[in-house]
Amino acid sequence: MKRRSWPLLSVLAFGYAFLYVPILLLILYSFNESRLVTVWSGFSFKWYGELLHNRQLLDAAWLSVRIAAVNATIALVLGTLAANALVRHGRFRGRTGLELLLTAPLVMPDVIIGLSMLLLFVALQQTIGWPDGRGFSTITIAHITFSLAYVAVVVRSRLARMDSSLEEAAMDLGARPLTVYLRITLPLIAPALLSGWLLAFTLSLDDLVIASFVSGPGSTTLPMVIYSSVRMGVSPQINALATLVVVLVALAVVVAGFSLRRR
Amino acid sequence: MKPRHASDEHRLSRLVNIGLPYLWLGLFFLLPFVIVLRISLAEPQLAQPPYTALWEWVEQGILQIRLNLGNFQLIREDDIYLAALLNSLWVALMGTLGCLLLGYPMAYAIATAPERRRIPLLMLIILPFWTSFLIRVYAWIGLLNANGLLNNFLLWLGVIDTPLKILHTQTAVYIGVIYSYLPFMILPLYANLTRLDPTLLEAAADLGCRPFRAFTRVTLPLSMPGIVAGSMLVFIPVVGEFVIPDLLGSPGSLMIGKLMWTEFFANKDWPLASALAIVLLAVLVVPFVLMQRLQQDDEGGRT
Predict the structure, then answer these.
(1) Using the beta-carbon criterion (under 8 Å), do B291 and A103 form an inter-chain contact?
(2) Where are the domains of chain A?
(3) Mean pLDDT, each 10-residue run in order, chain B (303 residues)
(4) Which element (helix H / strand E) includes B59?
(5) Which CATH number fits domain A63-220: 1.10.3720.10, 3.30.420.40, 3.30.1330.40, 3.40.50.261?
(6) Which of A170, B144, B256, B283 could be stapled to B167 by a disulfide with Cβ–Cβ 3.0 to 4.6 Å?
(7) Would B101 be classed as within a structural domain?
(8) Cα(B189)–Cα(B191) distance, rounded to whole angstroms?
């Protein structure tokens, strides 16, 4: 068949090295005794220890995780509804508009989303008195708004490729549409729902710019703490934190990947 | 009895499936832009909120509307904004080209790999995308520093004898952009290349076409939709990028996203930041419409 050409393979190898070497070095130096990231002075877990005693960072991490979980759950529901609309309801009026509204958040620069969300919240507070101050709820709402577009992409492609014979069989046997949807469709697209939820979760956990705009005093998220510490220069504690994040994410992706393949 | 019931349920399902996402995005995505436009026409003031109202009732029956075009005038007249905008477009263009040059061969190699290897190879492309963006940009600070790992490595190799200044230069921004956005280029390209009909290449080969020529005459033109989709996914967000130029770029060279951030957080000039957002949006409409058009053509062709 096809012979693989070596220039192509070497570009591929270079690409993977480009993607992974920085992350691997980051992980390696989280175990470095020295404060200097460039000098290896011995193996140590001490930065992980310091991480566990960094109250500010832990509080921020807890806030971020809670926001990410609420965000992922609501974005999953809304994104799945939007995917249903686009796959199941054919050419309804306003379809192009919905597609536009679902694509725009994917590419819209964060600074624009952040600023416009903040101005909306300020205007709402002035006119109807809600939200009273900014924090958990405003960050979550802002995150849902862009996360649901990503969820819609994931769920939509799964829904469109789905084999509809089981659904048709259930319909023929007299099951009602909602029952069919809940008992047949949702279990069939469960892997996509899982990866949509995880994607929304990590997107929220990762967001610095939008959260900076719509957060208030007392609601500092993890990326905001990381950002202010990184601006001061390289810090091994951040390396330790990065390692934990990478390990957790890799585990989640591998688990999700296996559950996807089993099906 | 039953059919009516089912059609009621269908109507309800339409209402929920179409209505709820519309409502949410209309309220929290579309409406905010109207407010941004409104505030871009206001003036900053030292109050809460820090901008003037556009209209007020001055006396019985007289509504006074004040539209301040000064922000847009300032953006047009002060060279710093034009320079920042042009620099943002330039960085986005270079970043997109970089992603394309590296991403196309990678996508091609993955798409032509044996079938059972494709998914793991693709997973490896997506995996970094799932880890924190901020942390991945941060990783490059340690690498590109004057006494960073890259310089130490090059010194050790003997390629250079004084450390290169890469961090806080435009080069570092390009590297950061390519690194962060590479998966966005590879995924649509891969999706496009796997859909390509292999018999076309066989036909070209049968007719005596050499592989390289077959690539430039058959594969490349057919993968154009993938190239455009990937390029837009990289280009549009990079124009407004903040984190990468802020952490890796030089303080002197400005990008529009960073400028917006400064006007907003440091100068507390919300109206000017809004005006910059409007200008940025206007610039991005063209590539966005191009992408949307292409996506719909693509779907039309598939179904």
Answers:
(1) yes
(2) 63-220
(3) 63 91 95 94 85 81 84 90 94 97 95 89 87 88 85 86 89 96 95 88 86 86 91 95 94 89 92 95 91 73 44
(4) strand B55-59
(5) 1.10.3720.10
(6) B144
(7) yes
(8) 5
